[in-house]
Amino acid sequence: MEYRRIKDQDKDEDALKDDVESLRGNSHSGSPKNVIPLGGISVDRSKWKRKSIVTLALTILTSSQAILIVWSKRAGKYEYSVTTANFLVEALKCALSLAALTRIWRIEGVTEDNRLTTTWDEVSVYPIPAALYLVKNLLQYYIFAYVDAPGYQILKNLNIISTGVLYRIILKKKLSEIQWIAFILLCAGCTTAQLNSNSDRVLQTPLQGWLMAIIMALLSGFAGVYTEAIIKKRPSRNINVQNFWLYVFGMAFNAIAILVQDFDAVMNKGFFNGYSLITVLMILNHALSGIAVSMVMKYADNIVKVYSTSVAMLLTAVVSVFLFRFHLSLAFFLGSTVVSISVYLHSIGKLQR
User: Fold this and answer.
1) What number of helices (H) and strands (E) belong to the chain?
2) pLDDT tens figures, 130-153
3) Please, are residues 97 and 247 in contact by the beta-carbon 8 Å criterion?
4) pTM score, two decimals?
């Protein structure tokens, strides 16, 4: 009797499972339901294609950025004015933001969130990050007196540490344990990649180069955190409007830098003196890189940005072998691998946080 009761109970459970499976099958059997997955597939393909394009663009732009700066030098120095080049970068980004706004106005019309007219209280916060980016961008040129293109790509990742620490101090955001581990690995990877086994000097980059890299990281981190705080203060505000005002102040500060540093040279030799095709490509690269980062963060995610940064480091090293006879040492391979792992761990820790 007990055996029969258990067997009947098992039959009832099997019947219940069959009923559940039949219900699941019916939920996918209706004609309207069959149409949705097809539409979903086309949408997913469209998103995947757009994500792939912006990621590929960011990777190429990032990897070629340092190469173009080094390539634009003649006999170890810049024949063009660095301040005028930075001014044109800001002007081009400003024009691209205005073009995007014009398209939005034509489609959606002018609204409270996408109009350029605003109050001084809103605009007055943009000079601070614009000034920080000015100094950081100027240092970006002068650091190449001490580092090569692949080394620059490695040291540039130090801004992850400054950004994380400033996140904790300014925005009061906690960091996960994985992120702290990633910071330690990042320092170890940057140091390992700079080891020099071909001379008495331990590190390839001298002290001046490291100081410039650290200052650049601090400026970049503080400017990024401050800009994020400004943008998130009014989330409904169109990002192109915010970028426009940031780039306007960037143009103003770079104009001041031209007057202070290169006024005589510009007046005597001309604004575009020393410019070449490489210089124009470099300016275009810097402007499009800033736009590409925004597009990746909008259409993709932070993981995609991280992967593109890691791949860009390797591409820069490979291209530098052919262009500048860069020597790929074992220390560089190990260091770049550790840096790539640390950058990935940082992004994972950010998601977990």
Assistant:
1) 14, 0
2) 999 899 888 888 888 888 777 787
3) yes
4) 0.72
